[in-house]
Amino acid sequence: MNGFMAILLKELAHIRRERATLFFAFMVPVFQLTIFGYAIETTIEDITTVVYNLDGRQDSRELVSAFQNTRKFNVVEQVFSEAAFEHAMASGRAKVGIKIPPDYTERLLLGQQATVQVLIDGSDSQIATTALNSASLLGLHKSLERGFAYAESRQAAVARDPAGRLTLPIQIRPRLLYNPDLESAHFFVPGLIGIIMQLVTLFLTSFAIVRERELGTLEQLFVTPVGRAGLMLGKLIPYALIGFVETLIVLAVMVFGFGVPIQGDIALLLLLSLLFLFTALGLGLLVSTLATTQLQAIQFAFIIMLPSILLSGFVFPREAMPTPMYLLSFVIPATYFIEILRGIILRSATIVDLLPHVVGLAVCCFLSLTLSVARFRKQLD
Amino acid sequence: MSSPDSAVIVADRLTRRFGDLVAVHDVSFQVSKAAIFGFLGPNGSGKSTVIRLLCGVLRPSDGGGSVLGHDVGQEAEAIKRRIGYMSQKFSLYADLSVTENLDFYGRIYGLGRPKLRQRKEELFELCGIRPFARQLAGTLSGGWKQRLALACALIHKPEVLFLDEPTAGIDPVARRELWDLLFELSGRGVTLFVTTHYMDEAERCSHVGYIYLSRLIVCGKPADLKALDTVTPRGVRRVEVTCPHTATALHRLRALDGVRDATLFGERLHVLIDDALADARLIEAIGEDATATEVRPIAPTLEDVFVTLSRSEAERRKS
Q: pTM of the entire structure?
């Protein structure tokens, strides 16, 4: 721990002089949160749709409005030839194409099955899935309507409600907990906070030692009796402070800017954020000891950031990942922290509920710090 | 040199390899207390590596050494407390002020607040940097940067000071002033180990060592080195030739029988010739206006010593 205070005071002096670093540390996360928070919108509506109606009579027009009324589909074009229909899809003007056959009305009247073709552009799987589900559901719904009408005419019923009206024999009554309005901000913003915290602290500390190596001041430090742990921790604590203040800022933006309230214990949240900060700072220092130039440090930091974003469950649900990727997600500190963030912020989870994640994060923290101190040698070879 | 027990720096068959490259090969020497040891050699000859080995920043691959009685391989941290090091390139924090840099190094060496204040006062005085106390280190000019670097290296009153090309790239006046400072320190009992390219600086050292292609070729007092037989062998004398066209004269002299070596020194030539070769023959060989050509005997300079020794070493290795 030799020289810890000396390094700490020096780093604080550097930070005070380096206004750009402070800006990067405090303002950039707020920008990022705002931009990402608004841009990531998973509720899909108004999928552009082209209609090729070969029938054109009352029933078929009703079907088209039924599609439009789901609000999932937005009919942007009516075409009158097969070629125009195909072109609308191929050109990307429409993601969905609805083709109603010429005998649609006749078949319904005759009690035969009428087939409506729905073409879906599968390139964007999220949009395609939504279109697929909504279209199938619409078909089912329309069929049920006709079934009810038929049953009514024959005075038969599978099930009736207390008022005597026809109803479905089995009713599924879903209730959404924690995020009843299914607002994507509630899901994404807490995760985003974890990602942004890691991004800023990782980059700030990555430079901490590499910069001194490039400037030649590290060599000068090597000939002093400064201790390994003193040097590392002295560099880490100031950035931990910055990271903590930054956490408070982004949490405030989340609560007041995005209207995502913190349901759980704020003190627990801050405590665990601190644990995560030290983990990320440890990773930054590790990068700093591996890289010999600042450019390399940036590249290493990106290599660490990428899996943290993709595999931590921030974007894609971990449960849906192939086994190797799922296993890999366990060595990513952000995985545990994002679970903790969502748990405390959305579900009011307690430390007991989150214990596996807290233990996982603590192990990551211990490893990243000990590895970086062990990697760092006070010699030039 | 002096007896081993008063030797402050000892290198004993010191060797350092980087992969296949042998940067320092079998280097042995001793430096006694309060000496100014000038360590010379061309670029890439291993000067900086020797300093790094002695400061405990690099481990020797073979052999060893000690500084102030501490082994360089085993007790590096003990050495670091008692030495100062000033590197070749400016390695202070440019965005910190002069005072902040001094404070930082003072704290690193664990100086308490009163002690630190006292040392800063002394160093402001000694190095003359008081007027710049609040200025950012990066905005100082070259000479003042070096003085600040020296002050930082001295903050903990080291007993040995290693300086790696301290005067590289600074103007002659600043160079002279820095050397005055070094003499002052040596007078106070600090042992100095200085690497340099400048021969005039070498002449000021109490002892010099010359390293060439990773090996220490010669080591001793400047006067002793100039008297070496290998520098001016028996039956050979050293003369200085002044003439109007030194470049052409150099070629002609080198072609002349009995001329061992000829080197250009500014507007003069230093020529090593057999005793038997008369001055008149030289003048005749140059073939220019005899009245404008002058030959006079000289003692070798340190530069002569090093040039001669590196040439014979290069030839010895070739054969």
A: 0.77
